[in-house]
Amino acid sequence: MLRAIAIDDEPAALDVLSRFADKVPFVELSQTFMNTTEALTYLHTQRVDLIFLDIRMPDLSGTDFAQLVAPLKKSIVFTTAYSDYALEGFALNALDYLLKPIDFGRFLHSCNRAYTQFLLQQGEPSSIFVKDGYDWVRVNLGDVLYIHSDTNLLFIHEQHRQVSTRMTLAEMVSMLPGDQFIRVHKSYLVAVKAIRKLERHQVTVGSGGAVIPLAASYRQPLEQRLLGK
Predict the structure, then answer these.
(1) What whole-number distance in Å separates Cα of residue 185 and Cα of residue 192?
(2) Helix (H) or strand (E) segment spanning residue 181
(3) Could you give phi then psi for residue 184, rounded to 5 degrees?
(4) Is 205 within 8 Å of 190 (Cβ atoms)?
(5) What is the pLDDT of residues 171-196, one digit of tens each?
(6) In the predicted model, what is the mean pLDDT of residues 132-155?
(7) How far, in Å, are 108, 203, 214 from residue 119 at the CA level?
(8) Taking residues 17-26, what's their average pLDDT?
(9) How many CB atoms lie within 10 A of CB 46?
């Protein structure tokens, strides 16, 4: 479970983050703050894994606050109504940047990225949660063979299970460890370790021998990864 806090001088913004966090099964929003001073004290006395941080704050800006707490090595997701701050935010190694009004899908995306990072730090198998219909489903990344997209719907294929979720392939790519998955087609992403056979126009994955199309534009990066050529 990720323990998170939110810092924003607007009560309405904190309400939105609280409502969104309540919907995510692996995030506990333990506290919200309207000023950075109280939040700083809390950070030094309580376990916090993830901080949702507004940038334009009255006393201390979110970016200044992020620099102040950098030694604590917390995952930070900036929240702001001003896209001008995006570059500054990412320069501070922020995990993500949410532009207000925040969409729940983007919020969930940030949470999944934070959760994956958290599990890696804990030495646990990487996993993410996706919404399959009305249910939340944990997907262990080590079990995934390939992912197929059809417009905004994704089909995550494991050896004995398929999970579908409403998300773009680009959104999924940004959540996954780049060293474990690789794009082979505009609609397909495969687990590198699951590849059993590489041919000119296709790859075969998993013990079941699923055949995935290999687009010409993705062949060279794949060969570089698998063959070092």
Answers:
(1) 14
(2) strand 181-185
(3) -120, -5
(4) yes
(5) 888 888 888 899 999 999 999 999 99
(6) 91
(7) 16, 30, 31
(8) 94
(9) 11
144 in Cβ contact with 156 (< 8 Å)? yes
176-202 per-residue burial string, b: 16 or more CB within 10 A, e: under 16:
beeeebbbbbebbbbbeebbeeeeeee
On whether the CB atoms of residues 28 and 49 are closer than 8 A, the answer is: no
Sheet holding 153-158, edge to edge: 162-166, 153-158, 144-150, 188-191, 181-185
State the pairing for strand pair 50-54/75-80: parallel
Enter the pTM of the model. 0.69
3-state secondary structure of 206: coil
- One-letter amino acid of 130: V
List b or e across 102-126, with b for residues whose CB sees 16 or more CB atoms inside 10 angstroms: beeebbbbbbbbbbbbbbeeeeeeb
pLDDT of residue 229 exceeding 70, the answer is no
pLDDT given for residue 89 in this prediction: 65
pLDDT on residue 50: 97
Structure tokens at 188: 């397909």
Asked if 98 contacts 109 with a C-beta cutoff of 8 angstroms, the reply is: no
Q: Is 161 helix (H, G, I), strand (E, B) or coil?
A: coil
Burial of 42 from C-beta contacts in 10 A (0-12 / 13-18 / 19+):
middle
